[in-house]
Amino acid sequence: MEDFVVYLKAEFLDAVYLQQNGFDPIDAATSKERQQYVYAKVHKVLTAPLSFTTKDEARDYFYRLRQHFIDWNYMAMDSPEFKTQEQAIDRLLEERTADAKGL
Q1: pLDDT given for residue 100 in this prediction
Q2: Which of 3, 47, 90, 103 is deepest in the core (most CB within 10 A)?
Q3: CA atoms within 13 A on the CB side of 80
């Protein structure tokens, strides 16, 4: 399971940070400040102690997390939607890391 989670984290990094949507005006070119800010959140996910009982559970979690980040990538950094989406990401991450600490 540990290797599978590492694999999912690698896919996550590629999908939410390394790839960009060249057709989206916000995601096509981002400022250094935004890149650093978003990467700090991505790094938090990559280093989080995540634990799952099944591969399906792990896949579902990373699918939801990935989609939250992709949606976040399309929001202007100074918008209220950006902060709201960031809070949703934080809640999703806290929920899983709290579960991992309890195991």
Answers
A1: 56
A2: 90
A3: 0
Number of domains within the chain: 1
Q: At what angle do helices 2-13 and 55-73 cross, to 10 degrees?
A: 20
What confidence tens digit (pLDDT) does each residue in 22-44 have?
898 888 888 999 999 999 999 99
CATH value at residue 48: 1.10.1140.10
The range of the structural domain enclosing residue 42 comes to 2-102
Give the whole-angstrom CA distance, residue 88 versus residue 22: 25
What are the tokens at 5? 């989670």
Claim: this prediction has a pTM higher than 0.85: yes
The amino acid that residue 19 corresponds to is Q
